[in-house]
Amino acid sequence: MLLIKNLTASINGTPVLKGIDLEIKAGEIHAIMGPNGSGKSTLGKVLAGHPAYEVTGGEVLFEGRDLFSMAADERARAGLFMGFQHPIEVPGVSNSSFLRLAYNKKAEAEGRDELDPLEFDDFIHEKIKLVAMREEFLDRSLNEGFSGGEKKRNEILQMAVLEPKLAILDELDSGLDIDALRVLGDAVNRLQRADRALLIITHFPRILETIQPHYVHVLSGGRILKSAGKELALELEERGYDWVLEASAAGGAR
Amino acid sequence: MSSTFNVVTSQEYKYGFVTDIEADSAAPGLSEDTIRFISAKKGEPDWLLEFRLKAYRHWLTMAEPDWAKVNYARPDFQAIVYYSAPKQKTPKYASMDEVDPELKRTFEKLGVPINEQAALAGVAVDVVFDSVSVTTTYKEKLATVGIIFCSFSEAVREHPELIKRYLGSVVPSSDNFYAALNSAVFTDGSFVFIPKGVTCPMDLSTYFRINNKDSGQFERTLIVAEEGASVSYLEGCTAPQFDTNQLHAAVVELVALDRASIKYSTVQNWYAGDKNGLGGIYNFVTKRGLCKGVASRISWTQVETGSAITWKYPSCILLGDESIGEFYSVALTNHKQQADTGTKMVHIGRNTKSTIISKGISAGDSSNSYRGLVKVQPKAEGARNFSQCDSMLIGQSCSASTFPYIEVQNRSARVEHEATTSKIGEEQLFYFQQRGIPAEEAISMIINGFCKDVFRELPMEFAVEATKLLSLKLEGSVG
Question: Contact B435/A48, CB-based, under 8 Å?
């Protein structure tokens, strides 16, 4: 589904990604972990097409297509979704009209029927149950005045509406209490299918207890230093990141 | 793939065509003779000529205001044509059949309903082309309930006592430089009179069109709502695309007596000049409403999208106790446009209330300023004001400023002012794009959300037009 080959990227001329190789297949869940400033979030933003980052080298294929030949909105309609660490607030734009426009853009691109406001109303009422969101949040302005947890809930609601092939979830756990984390983790698990894939970007291993990854990668200094199965997450929880960094510096971590 | 956020082009102005029509024009230049010429053309009574001359003599002593945050070459007042009218046999068309077909086509092209059969249901229109009113629809129907809706010139002939009583009663001829100029040379406009207790059964509307390259448009609008009367009035305007600047200096006066209500809505789309700032209308307008009676209400709603320079402060004088003044404004500037606009709310009566909601949107290299005065006079016991001024910036080279002036001379008054500045930046657009929404649609959605509090004050037809207009004006604002 996603093939990243020797990807390098920079922001304002400063290299942030220094050669990433990663393959994500349909049905897989990958976790990218690493200390703050390691480049984890950058990887997500570069894949999603954030304009502040410049791709300086390498190649990314998404479903066999050259990802970087597609504009950010095109990537989204092709099925690439990113759950934001800090979702944007947009006053005056109702959450439901935003969700409907996003849904219809994708439907249009896939040649499916667009939903009118009434049809969408039925559709969205099913979806909000999945993330246990209260109905009133649909009529409120997009993310405006939402708490950190409510914003994250809204991100997963958007994921449920768009049903992406590949969802990149950037620090889903930040700002969430344990109960909310479990609800959203369960929702993400229910959305996962054999023809979809997940890339979880996180600093803390806790979220991986709910969303269990097949692979865990440690990213630091713009490179993947270590890749292993989910047991690596547990090890990181016990030992922290330093040992991976040190082992890598000594040349043995891989 | 560095930052792709910059401003490039915008939709071409689709009203920029010129109507080729024979005009009856005065020679360029301004003098007492010009004023006598205009007055004679219109067959005006002596008192009106005196009103004009007095205004002109005062104007000669005045200096053009320079406090607004706008830069432009001062108009050459001797190069302007102060009277230009499509040639016609009779002073006023008796019926639509007599209107020059070329003119009819012009307004059809502009989408202005001058033909009653084809008109939008429920909107009566006065159509002003350069210096004269071409036609007024639904006049007879409105007359059956005692409403007067006609061109200003006709009102001077048919209802001189009303004009004499109210002309200059809200905006004195010496009020400011452009109001004085208008008082001296105004040519036409609309007059509305809603008698006691009557609710106007349809929206009234005036459509202004500047066609002549060298002419200025100096129209005068006067709306009087007697005790308990109410009316909703709409104003629209366009002009052809010329490389030179045309001057538009209008005066609008509203008078609301006891418990009367006037709602005045404008969608201003004068030609704004090209993207390098060549050409465009100088829009220097004085609009003021007098809430003269107890519990009267005047509400201004404006969507300002055109003109090279906008200098405009629709205001309310809250004289009657418990009167209410409202100002809802969206001002959008793009390219080299400059707008300095806002309002004045002057609280004189007790328990008077005012609300100001201003939304400024700047794109390109434009400059957009809100300037507003809230003044509470000593006797305005219990006066209340709420102001909210929000600015939105699109791109890096535009600017937004807010100049709120607050003068309170009564301790029981409550005045609240809130202001925000936001930016449609990369992060916001990226968020929308990441959900599959293209940048243009994202901007349109963000802008409409930003302007929602103002748009919902507009009559339905206007709200739809305003939404489309803003999207058009910003088309191509992000690359």
Answer: no
Question: CB–CB of B62/B173 below 8 Å?
Answer: no
Q: Chain A: give the shortest CA distance to residue B277, in Å.
A: 30
| Structural domain containing residue A154 | 2-249
Q: Flag whether A67 is in a domain.
A: yes
Q: Residue B53, Cα to own-chain centre: how many angstroms?
A: 25
Structure tokens at B218: 């100096």
pLDDT above 90 (res A151): yes
List the structure tokens of B333: 């500037």
B448 and chain A in contact, CB less than 8 A: yes
E-state strands within B140-291 = 148-151, 188-194, 203-209, 219-225, 230-238, 245-248, 251-256, 261-268, 280-291
Contact B374, B356 (CB under 8 A): yes
Beta bridge partners of B399: B367
Backbone angles phi, psi at B77, to 5 degrees: -70, -15
Q: pLDDT below 50 — which residues of chain B?
A: 1-11, 89-92, 117-121, 479
- For residue A254, tell me if it sits in a domain: no
> Residue B355 forms beta bridges with which residues?
B326, B386
d(CA B270, CA B274): 12
DSSP secondary structure, B49-65, as one string: HHHHHHHHHHHHT----
Q: Which two tokens stand for residue A44?
A: 């997500």
Top-confidence residue, A108 or B269: A108
Model pTM? 0.81
Q: Look at A162 and B438 and tell me if their CB atoms are within 8 Å.
A: no
Tokens read off for B395: 């791109």
CATH number at residue A151: 3.40.50.300
Question: B361, B423, B433, B471: best mutation site toward chain A, by most A Cβ within 10 Å?
Answer: B433
Q: Strand, coil or helix: what is A41?
A: helix
Task: Taking residues A42-71, report their average pLDDT.
Answer: 95
Q: Provide the pLDDT for residue B4.
A: 29
Q: Which residue has the tokens 């909000």?
A: A128
Instruction: Kindly provide the b/e burial profile for residues B59-92, where b requires at least 16 CB atoms within 10 angstroms of the residue's own CB.
Output: beeeeeeeebebeeeebebeebbbbbbbebeeeb
- Residue A209: pLDDT band with limits 50, 70, 90: confident
Pick from B430, B436, B445: CB nearest A51 = B430
Q: How many CB atoms lie within 10 A of CB B29?
A: 14
Position A196 in a domain:
yes
Number of neighbours of residue A19 by Cβ within 10 angstroms: 14
Residue of B nearest to A164 (CA): B435
ipTM: 0.95
Supply A33's token pair: 């972990």
* Residue indicated by tokens 């979704």: A81
Q: Do B435 and A84 touch (CB under 8 A)?
A: no
Enumerate the β-bridge partners of residue A198: A29, A167
Q: Do A101 and B446 touch (CB under 8 A)?
A: no
User: B418 and chain A: CB distance < 8 Å anywhere?
Assistant: no
Rounded mean pLDDT of chain A? 92
User: How much of chain A exceeds pLDDT 70, in percent?
Assistant: 98
Alpha-carbon gap, residue A39 to B148, rounded angstroms: 71
Contact assignment for B434 to A54 by CB distance below 8 Å: no
**Contact between residue B96 and residue B138 where contact means Cβ atoms under 8 Å apart:** no
Using an 8 Å Cβ cutoff, are B336 and B369 in contact?
A: no
At residue B257, the pLDDT reads 98
Total structural domains in chain A? 1
Model confidence band, residue A253 (pLDDT cutoffs 50, 70, 90): very low
The C-alpha atoms of residue B251 and residue B159 are separated, in whole angstroms, by: 19
Give the pLDDT mean for A112-129.
Answer: 93
